[in-house]
Predict the structure.
Amino acid sequence: MPLEVKNVAFSYNHNPSKRDADAGLKENAVLKDMSFTCRDNRVTGIVGPNGCGKTTILKVIAGFYRAHAGSISYDGRTTDGMNAAELAKLRAVVEQTVYSPFAFPVYDYVMLGRTPYHGNFSADTEEDNEIVLNSMKSTNVLQFKDRKINELSGGELQRVMIARSLAQEPKYLMLDEPTSHLDIRQQLEVMKLLRSISSNTTIMCIIHEINQAAAYCDDVVMTAGGYVIGEGKAEDILNYENLSEVFGVLSMQTSQPESGKKQFLFSLQPDTHAEKAKHVHVISGEGRGRRILLTLKHAGFKVTAGILSRNDGDYLVCRSAGIETVSVPSFSPYSEEAVMQQKKLCDEADAVVLVATDVGSGNLVNPETAYSYLNTGKPVFFVDHNMKEYKYDNTAGKRATQIYDAMLKNAKAVSGADELLSELTD
């Protein structure tokens, strides 16, 4: 059965001897009304901005703090009915930092994970020894067993801390930012290790890096302001809208070459926002319109786009950002229906933007459409990206060059997204 968090509220200023059903409504509550599920044998990442209560919810779930409202259930049993030893056999916790008053040898430090199974002053058993060695092997730290823990690098120490937790034989392993302060390779090694552990252990970890969550987590819980904003499969929760709402950033989705997993590029939202939701139709391609599309979207404009091929980088940005797009299948000619849809959106738009691209007979309709709105009273903008010579005009009679020259003379030529935004918001 999964780990379930239901309507949990917590405040550091609350009297821990009293439960308060209204704790989640108080302004000083860190956790106000949090509910989510960690499914068995999966990696669940908890993501959210700094100060949103990620570490607090982990400590409440682990039993370090007592929820003032709501419940936490392991395998259908609430933590209210468990003592510390029972909890320690169910879950193990890897915190951000390790504190030890003694410079333990690594083997002895990992053996501390067997503490919940020992009586007072009982000696380590052969079974304990076997479990500890297996935990060290699975985390690739056996070669450090005789070294002192204060002699290890950050990545080595993190793996040792995970080994100690595995020695508890927990069903649930909880980690608070397991890759913080590690270099890139060490981060990847730790996340890969957690993926391998998840075949037998349910993993719940707080993750600071969104791209790590996208690459290594099965599920994601996104939090902000003491609430759960969304939970579910990582590919569903990590999207343009949620990242914009929770982190206040502009994001562009790409993919990891080896795995095909989502990855994101981030930038700050522009300072200028549209006073009203003007409709701007962007005609682009070859990925040249990505920043323009996202900048306008974040500035508050209603943005539409197309015609775009479905393998175009601009189309992928539109799809991830929820931008309405006229599209055609990859390597297919533009259909009459697509051309009509493009014209309809341009007619409805307050402004049309043409981004210069390479042009052949197949996509000539794009610059032709923008050209048709010159001298109609509708603002037309031309983003040329310094493509002054248009060397890749493969149209009959160099028609694209003629259109681009006319756009430079008669449209409002801008150099890129920032200048375009300035013109649209003047």
